[in-house]
Design a protein that fits this description.
This protein has 422 residues and is α/β, with parallel strands linked by helices. The chain folds into 3 domains: 133 residues, no CATH class; 199 residues, Nucleotidyltransferase, domain 5; 81 residues, no CATH class. The chain is 50% helix and 15% strand.
Amino acid sequence: MADELSMALLELLRKADPEGRGDFVRTAVERLMQAIIEAEVELKIGAGRYERTETRTNQRNGSRPRDWDTTAGTVHLEIPKLRRGSFLPVLLEPRRRADRALVNVVAQAYVEGVSTRRVDDLVRAMGVDGMDKSTVCRLAAVLDEDVRAFRERPLTEAYPYLWLDATFPKVREAGRVVSMALMIAVGVSAQGQRSILGLDLGCSENGANWTEFLHSLVDRGLHGVQLVISDDHKGLKAAVRSVFVGSSWQRCTVHFTRNAVAQAPKHAQPAVSAVVRQIFAQPDRASAEAQLLQAATTLEPRFPKVAEMLLQAEADLLAHMDFPTAHWRQIRSTNGLERLNREVTRRTDVVGIFPDRASVIRLAGALLAEQDDEWATGRRYFSVESMASLVPPLALPTPTDGQAASVHNPSPEVTTLPRPAA
C-alpha cells in the first residue's frame, strides 16, 4: 500500500513538471500538504470521498481555496468544506511550526524503517505514506535552519533568574533505543520578560553534559545570573557552582516537599506536607528559619529522616527569600518550566522513538521557538518596577569579547551589591 501511494505521488509530480525544470520542492510541498489535508478530513468524517461506511459522521460540501506561504514558495491548497460544522487542517492552525515539525519527525521515522506500529498508524492517518527520503530531507532542512538560528541567537540582556530542567525522550542510537536528556533553560530578563534561552540533548543528565550546556549559554552572552532554580540533582548543582560562580541556588520547594512526604507513612503524609509547606508561607526569612527549626523539632521524634532533610537543605530552600517578595512564588520552584516540559513531552510521546538526535532537536526546538514567540509578545513575567529593585541598571554590563570569564565569575562590583530587603 505504501509503495503504491509513493508511486502515485511521484507520478503526480512528474505530470506537474514533465521536463524537470520547474520548482520541484514547491510542487512537492503543495502535493504533500494537500494529501495530508485530504487524509485529515477523511479521518474527521469517518469515510473517504464517495465512500459509504457505518462510521461516517458528516458529508463534504465542496472546498475553498487557500494560499499558504512557505519558504519553498506560495502553495495553493483546497480546503474541504463540510455540511455540518467547520474544518481547519492542523497545518494551518496558529501553532503550525510545531505541527510541521511533528509531520517531519514522523515521516522521517517511517521512511528510515525504524517506526513503531503506533507511529506507522499515525503516519497513515496523516496521509504521508508517499514521502520519499529525499523529499523529507529537503522539507526538514528548512525547519532545521529555523531551529538552529533560535538555538544560536545571541543573548544580549542580563538574566537574573534562570530555571533549569530536563525531559527524557527515547532515541535510537547505535542500534539501541535509549533515553536521552533534553536540557532546557528558561530565564527572566532584567526587564521582567521570560524567555527560552536554550536547549540541548545529552546522553544523560550528568554534570559534564550540564556544564557543557551552561557554558554554551555563556558563550552566547548569558550574564547577570543571580539565582538558579532547579531540582536537587548532583550533576546539575555541580555545573551551576562551576559556571555561575557567585550566584545563589534555589532548590525546588515542590520537589523537596514531595521527597520529604515520601519518607512518612501514607496516613501521616498530609500532616507532614502541611508542616513543610508552612515554612514557605512565612512573610520573611527570619520567620521562615524559625518555622523550619520548629518543624524539624516537631517531626524529629516520629520522622527523623524528614527533620534531617529540612535542616540540611535550609539554605537552599530559603534562598529565594533574599530576593523581592513579589517574585517568591515563581522563583521558589520549577513549576513554570515543568509545564513547558509537559507540552514538549506531549509531542514527543506521539512520536514514541526518535530515529536520531537531530529529529529530537527539530521537534523540541520548533515547539520551544513557538512558545518563546508567544512569551515575547505577551505580558511580562515580573513587573519592571520589581525587577529594577533587584537589578540596578549599571550593575550588570553586557560582556564583550574576551570577557567570558567575568560572566560566570562576576566582578567585585557586581557580587557585593546589597540586595533589597524581602
